[in-house]
Amino acid sequence: MSEKIYNVLFICTGNSARSILSEGLMNHLGQGRFRAYSAGSHPTGVVNPLALAALARHGMDTAGFRSKSWDEFSQDGAPSLDFVFTVCDKAAGEMCPVWPGQPMTAHWGVPDPAACEGTDAQKQQAINDATIALKRRIELFLSLPLPKLDTVALQKAVRDIGKS
């Protein structure tokens, strides 16, 4: 019997940096056990080039990433989601669509590197900080014994990761 592949959606408002980083990191680190997606409540339509560069530095192919609306994941034919994580405070406070599959949700807020104003070095540092924070949270999530946890324990664990 093959192991279940979990579908994970990462949401931020613009779907330009944090959720894109999360999608790439989860797909890379999840080694086929997870299929990650990203979306925004108000997508910018543009992926932050510093986010793509950060993914490339971690050995990931950056082709195919795009800024898209979360509406794509609430329509017929959308993947059935197991987990939905908001990675920005603004998106966490918005009324989300009804997701197919009744996924488990949690908030993993990270400061928005795309909002950083300053020198190129400061912008790069903001992307690096967000990438490191998201990578740590994803690694903690991937270390959970998902099939062994009951719903209550799993919900607590994914919420606690967002507080780390």
From TrEMBL:
Span of domain Phosphotyrosine protein phosphatase I: 6-144
Keywords, sorted A to Z: Arsenical resistance
GO process terms (BP): response to arsenic-containing substance
Origin species: Cupriavidus campinensis
Entries under InterPro entries matching the protein: Ptyr_pPase (IPR023485), Ptyr_pPase_sf (IPR036196)
Protein's UniProt name: Arsenate reductase ArsC
Parts forming coiled coils: none
Pfam families tied to this protein: LMWPc (PF01451)
Superkingdom of origin organism: Bacteria
